[in-house]
Amino acid sequence: MEIGAYEAKTHLPKLLARVQQGQRFVITRHGRPVAELRPVGSRSREEIQAAIAWLADFQANHVSSGPGVRELIREARKGRKG
After folding, report:
1. Distance from CA of residue 17 to its chain's centroid?
2. What is the pTM (predicted TM-score) of this model?
3. Which terminal residue of the chain, N or C, has fewer Cβ atoms less than 10 Å from its own Cβ?
4. What's the pLDDT tens digit per position in 31-78?
């Protein structure tokens, strides 16, 4: 359901009560979507799968040739001792 920004601001407590019941709202400004009001932690299976696929693709295509995190930590610890 779409709702204008002014109306959302004016009726925020009522909207939050409806969100707690599981409803979602797209907040618009001048007819254009700018935000989504939805229950915390609610993600569709498709959103979760898309995020996992994006992360896997990112990991596969962004290989670092530099030192790994463990090596950086080890070097930082050496620096504190000396």
Report:
1. 22
2. 0.50
3. C
4. 999 999 998 876 788 888 999 999 988 888 887 778 888 888 998 998
User: Of 18, 21, 24, 19, which Cα lies nearest the Cα of 2?
Assistant: 24
Residue carrying the six token digits 């799968």:
49
Say if residues 66 and 72 touch (Cβ distance below 8 Å).
Answer: no
Q: How far is CA 68 from the centre of its chain?
A: 26
Q: Is 28 helix (H, G, I), strand (E, B) or coil?
A: strand
- C-alpha span between 82 and 70 (Å, rounded): 19
> Is residue 1 a contact partner of residue 19, using CB atoms and an 8 Å limit?
no
Residue 76 token pair: 């930082």
Q: Is the CA virtual torsion 53, 25, 10, 21 positive or negative?
A: negative
